[in-house]
Design a protein that fits this description.
heterodimer, A: 380 residues, alpha+beta, 7-stranded antiparallel beta sheet, 5 helices, B: 318 residues, 6-stranded antiparallel beta sheet
């Protein structure tokens, strides 16, 4: 990626030839800035034979962090793709780490991370900055995926090649209009992905999770993990606080500033005490009832939150609930949603629920919240 | 001939000097009849002449800061009308008729009566004790961890006592400068009463906010407290306890209230919410109450979801 004014590289990534030889696959996050700010940046390639040239965008898959670029002249033989080898098989990630030159990182296939649409392959090799967008091969030299991210210490992630195959097919049939505001296209793709994800959640059976007198939505999808998050209280504490935090691992790269969306997090706090008087208990309860959304985004990126308050009957118990939404300035239709509910009516116990979803369609999030609340059960 | 007297306005009690002689000289030099030791007064500044026909003549003698009568510069002025308002340098004087009636006597606040809040030290002590008890109660109600009386005592001493003491001391000094008297007993009563009212208002604000599931009742009370209640209370104190004139009392009340109210208001989250300032965190209605009194009806999940469809989209900051 080069700056139009200085003509110098602003960032680098890797890519590889696919399709008919005039297409190059890479990560969306490698070229995100250039397609969102085409007046400032452009993408160029540097072939093995020293040829250089500008590339244009042919297609995007934001949810799987893929982009397809096109060049005028064929660049070489397209690479053959192949399904994933068995778990434990050696695989090889190729790329240009830190602009040091082409290297290969060796590791093994850790298998598909989960059974959902955004499946990623766990890779035991080291991916470094600059290797993003490069191919991952099996032992036969066929592409099984695209390097995408790392969690350091040889825990890296690969996007399966089937999403690339789909993208190449889509690009061949539909003419991609690169002239329209690409943020709209990005928003459309993110929302379509999120809506599909929500549909899956709504269709699924949700196992329950027991927390004192409640049965609450537990691991509602294979993408979700739940952790005990109970804080270690002082030995002098005259109350008990139990905390469970569940969330998915979806991180959809949006852009340099907004970073990631696609997070769904729900938390439960159970608070009880037989030593505190009602006022003491409610002072503490109110103190814990705080904003749980932790993305510190600026006013250029999001609107203020708009909130409403209701007293809702959930599983025969009264809850004071708040629902808030905020909009993304540059991505039409995309919102962050924050839901909170605090059980009222007991002097010595309380349940506080929060649910946040980032980068979603507000309307589409409501059925999810409805199902979430309908799943709550109370045991007297 | 009317018996005349010259009133010289000074801080504290005014000075009075009878005008017995036909000619009275006013100035800074020590051989004047009326000596005004102010640097803006000329050595021989003015002459007050009593004519046989009862009229009074004011003659200016000063080149620097000439004498003013009724706000106008004069060289000489002959008049029969009393009172005559004079400005000599920056000193204000009045020529008055001794027979002129004076305003009715204003009773001392409380006048030592036990039944009157400002009348007896007994009330001051009682109210301070109530403040300390309130401080202790606040500490007790936020003691989520183990509660110890020694901690409560420490808190009351450090927080309540210190803040009350600092406020009383600074206001007492201010009062000493303004009215040239110490009125500690009345001041302690007033400060303690304000402290109690402040906490009562805060409690009322929380209760009303929860009752209406909204922030406007608390915001209204909060702004009303700082912008209306505090200046009014100070003005009433200055006028009725310190016996300042009304205009002066109101002006001083605004001056004293501003440094108390303005910084607090500007930094208040309520002001930011009112102006809809940008915030990356949600200002939702997180208040909870053990009493759980609220006007909003308890609704079903379906109703909640239906109504939530009409939640306004967030407003972009410009």
């Amino acid at each position: 990626m080069l700056n139009r004014e200085t003509g110098k590289k602003s960032s680098i990534g890797s890519g590889f030839v696919v399709g008919d030889g005039r297409q190059v696959a890479t990560n969306y996050h490698v070229i995100g800035q250039v397609i969102l700010e085409p007046d400032e940046f452009y993408i160029s390639y540097l072939g093995k034979d020293g040829r250089e040239g500008e590339m244009k965008l042919l297609g995007l898959d934001v949810a799987h962090d893929l982009a397809l670029l096109g060049v005028e002249e064929p660049l070489g033989e397209p690479m053959k793709t192949s399904p994933l080898p068995p778990r434990g098989a050696p695989i090889f990630a190729m790329g240009n780490p830190l602009d040091l030159g082409l290297t290969i990182a060796v590791g093994t296939n850790g298998g598909i991370l989960n059974q959902t649409d955004d499946s990623r392959i766990l890779f035991s090799g080291s991916l470094n900055p600059g290797m993003s967008g490069g191919p991952t091969f099996n032992e036969q030299g066929e592409v099984i995926g695209i390097n995408v991210a790392t969690a350091r210490n040889s825990i890296s992630f690969i996007v399966p090649s089937r999403f690339l195959t789909e993208l190449v097919e889509r690009a061949a049939t539909a003419d991609f209009d690169g002239s329209e505001d690409l943020r709209k296209e990005v928003a459309r793709q993110v929302l379509a992905y999120e809506n599909r994800y929500f549909q899956q959640l709504l269709a699924a059976d949700w196992p329950g999770l027991d927390l004192r007198q409640f049965t609450l939505p537990g691991i509602i999808s294979p993408t979700v993990r739940c952790w005990d998050n109970s804080a270690r209280l002082s030995t002098a504490a005259r109350y008990r606080r139990l905390q469970i935090r569940c969330g998915n691992q979806n991180h959809i790269y949006l852009d340099e500033e907004n970073k990631f969306v696609g997070n769904l997090v729900y938390e439960y706090y159970w608070l009880e005490s037989d030593a505190l008087n009602p006022t003491q208990f409610y002072n503490l309860y109110e103190y814990l009832n705080k904003d749980q959304i932790d993305s510190k985004l600026d006013r250029d990126i999001v609107s203020n939150f708009s909130c409403g308050t209701w007293f809702v009957d959930i599983a025969t118990q009264e809850f004071k609930t708040n629902l808030c939404r905020r909009e993304y300035v540059e991505y039409p239709g995309m919102s962050d949603v924050l839901f909170t509910a605090a059980m009222t009516g007991y002097k010595d116990r309380g349940l506080f629920i929060t649910l946040t979803a980032t980068g979603v369609d507000y309307e589409a999030s409501l059925p999810l919240i409805q199902k979430f609340l309908e799943q709550v059960q109370w045991r007297p | 001939m009317a018996s005349l007297i010259l009133e010289i306005a000074t801080r504290g009690l005014h000075r009075y000097q009878g005008l017995e002689k036909p000619v009275t000289t006013v100035g800074r030099a020590l051989d004047n009849d009326v000596i005004l030791s102010d640097p803006t007064v000329a050595p021989y500044h003015a002459r007050i002449v009593r004519h046989d026909d009862g009229r009074i003549e004011i003659v200016n003698l000063a080149e620097v800061n000439p004498t003013r009568v009724g706000g106008k510069r004069i060289d000489a002025l002959l008049t029969a009308e009393l009172p005559i308002e004079l400005e000599i340098g920056r000193v204000q004087l009045q020529v008055l008729d001794r027979d002129q009636p004076v305003a009715a006597t204003r009773p001392l606040a409380g006048n030592g009566r036990r039944s009157h809040l400002f009348g007896h030290a007994y009330w001051a002590i009682l109210l301070v004790l109530a403040c300390l008890a309130l401080g202790g109660l606040e500490f007790y109600q936020s003691a989520y961890n183990s509660f110890r009386w020694s901690d409560l005592l420490k808190y009351v001493m450090r927080e309540t006592m210190l803040s009350l003491g600092a406020l009383i001391l600074s206001l007492a000094i201010l009062e000493r400068l303004l009215v040239h008297r110490w009125e500690i007993r009345q001041l302690v009563t007033a400060v303690a009463l304000t402290f109690l009212l402040y906490h009562a208002t805060g409690w009322l604000a929380d209760t009303l906010d929860y009752l209406f599931s909204a922030n406007w009742p608390g915001t209204l009370l909060y702004f009303g407290w700082y912008l209306l209640a505090v200046p009014c209370a100070i003005a009433l104190y200055l006028i009725h306890i310190s016996h300042l004139r009304q205009g002066r009392g109101i002006l001083l009340a605004i001056l004293i209230a501003s440094p108390i109210a303005v910084p607090g208001l500007l930094q208040s989250p309520r002001l930011h919410a009112l102006l809809d300032d940008f915030s990356s965190s949600a200002r939702y209605h997180n208040q909870l109450s053990a009493m759980n009194l609220h006007f909003a009806p308890r609704v079903s999940i379906e109703t909640f979801i239906d109504e939530a469809k009409h939640l306004d989209a967030g407003q972009f900051a410009n």
